[in-house]
Task: structure prediction
Amino acid sequence: MSVNNRLKMKKVAKMFGYIILGFLGFCVLYIVAEYILSRIPVSGRETISDRTVQVYVKSNGVHTDIILPVIHEEMDWTHLFPYTNTVGKKSGYQYVGIGWGDKGFYLDTPEWKDLKASTALVAAFGLGESAIHVTYYNFMQENELCFGYKISPQQYKELVKYIRDSLDWKDGRTVLVDTDAQYDDSDAFYEAKGSYSLFYSCNTWTNTALKHAGMPAGIWAILDKGIMSHYRK
Result:
């Protein structure tokens, strides 16, 4: 191999080394920034006295949902998300869980073992569509992944507005996602606005909703752990 070729190979190797180091540096910075910022509390409204509405923040270990009363004087969620859109078509549920996320993840990745590289790349770079996942519950039980919190009617209104603003609408109605990928007989998916990305995940959506309503939340969250840390006693 000539001297020139050896020099070229060294330059290429050095370039790849810089790229790898840059990528690793980005990953470390990303993880550290998320950990810190998700745990720094945003000033809430602890002085509010009329906190009469029971809500919950729930995680499945990865993804967070906001759990709300199905029917309240401020909102009847069955008007937006009819029971008939669920597989079971049952009625009379007490609570509704609402979360936002990448449609590809929701519909094509029921478990982590089902994750495809194409789905992950599309989601990571904000190239996919999003959906709202709605799940009805008969009751809620607090545990290490589900925490109750009482808010005021005004805070509840702000949650309602945030969720409505996240939905896609057609002729004044929510748009049901036509799929058989439901997780249970009491859930359904609806078309939503926005795109999932490295910097805006399903948990970022939840964290932003909590901030809008003046509930405990972090500055920025990608994972569920930071959000849940604000509700652990």
